[in-house]
Amino acid sequence: MRQTAFREHPHHGRPHHGHHHPSHRHPRHASAGGDWFSGSSDGRGDADGFGGDGRGFTRSRKVSSDDLQLMLLGLLEQNASHGYELIKALGALSNGFYTPSPGMVYPALTYLEELGYATVEQEGAKKRYHLAEPGKAYLDANRDRLTLMFNKLKHVARKMDYMRQAWSGQPRATGPEGEDARTGWLPEFVEARQALKRALLDRTDASPAEQRRIAAILARATDEITGKSGA
């Protein structure tokens, strides 16, 4: 039996208004075998949505129906839009890495309209979609997940810019702090991320005790990065 990528998210909030969760329909929007935001089912790809060899730009662009619908609502919160404008917005946000097809976006918008999450304003032959109050409630209940998805798209866009510049062999334009002018990344920031990935790969055969030691280090680092260390 063919498995699809959309999943239940029991930990995510949902509005209380009697409608079904958006991911329960339109399975043709979902991708088989995992998706880009959650990671592929076979474990390939790193936390950036790329393969570990740095060349996997096209390998993991699968996005589930639930995630696409949530991103569309997030864009509608910013501006009422036509379907093609939403497609362009996702492409621009990700620097072309993720540009969903009309065959994915328009049925998703129709379904959001059916749920009452979006309303439609007819403009001649075109439809302009607006965020409705139930859609806003659903967004508010899933705000952290939406922020993470948009941040992943922004990150992958910057990484593509950074890698293209590296491959070009041309000197980087830098800002006043030495940051890359296009991405805003400092060389030491990029090098630290790469060093961490290499260190974890070097410990792939670590014993359970060593894994616990590494996990504790990463937990402390995560708390410091997010400001939760209590310092």
TrEMBL record:
Pfam family, any one: PadR
Signal sequence bounds: none
Originating species: Achromobacter animicus
SUPFAM superfamilies found in the cross-reference section: Winged helix' DNA-binding domain
Source species, domain of life: Bacteria
Protein name: Transcription regulator PadR N-terminal domain-containing protein
Ranges of biased composition (kind: Basic residues): 9-29
Region (Disordered): 1-58
Domain Transcription regulator PadR N-terminal, first and last residues per copy: 72-140
PANTHER family referenced in this protein's UniProt entry, alphabetically: TRANSCRIPTIONAL REGULATOR YQJI (PTHR43252)
